[in-house]
Design a protein that fits this description.
With 85 residues, this protein is mostly helical. The protein has a domain of 54 residues. It is built from 3 helices and no strands. Helix 1 crosses helix 2. The longest helix has 25 residues.
């Protein structure tokens, strides 16, 4: 995997993990002010969630890199012309 592919895979994994981490610990405001969304979180803690997302995405990316680098899963064999059945 070259550096560009590695960065691209990390960004895709990061966004996917962020979407799974965002709902953690969300508590809606008990008495929202007029004009505010009642379901909006009181304290979203976005910086903490971004740090957690980066750590989890790094671990997942490391696993993906290991699988690709070791050749445990390879699509190159199937992509060669004339190698199909």
């Amino acid at each position: 995997m070259n550096w560009f592919t590695g960065v691209l895979v990390y960004c895709m994994v990061w966004v996917l993990v962020l979407l799974t981490v965002l709902p953690w610990g969300v508590r809606p405001t008990e008495e929202p002010e007029p004009g505010h969304e009642p379901g909006a979180p009181e304290k979203p803690l976005l910086l903490r969630k971004m740090i957690i997302t980066s750590l989890i995405a790094g671990v997942i990316w490391g696993g993906v890199y290991l699988v690709i680098d070791q050749g445990w899963i390879s699509f190159r064999e199937m992509a060669r012309p004339g190698s199909g059945s």
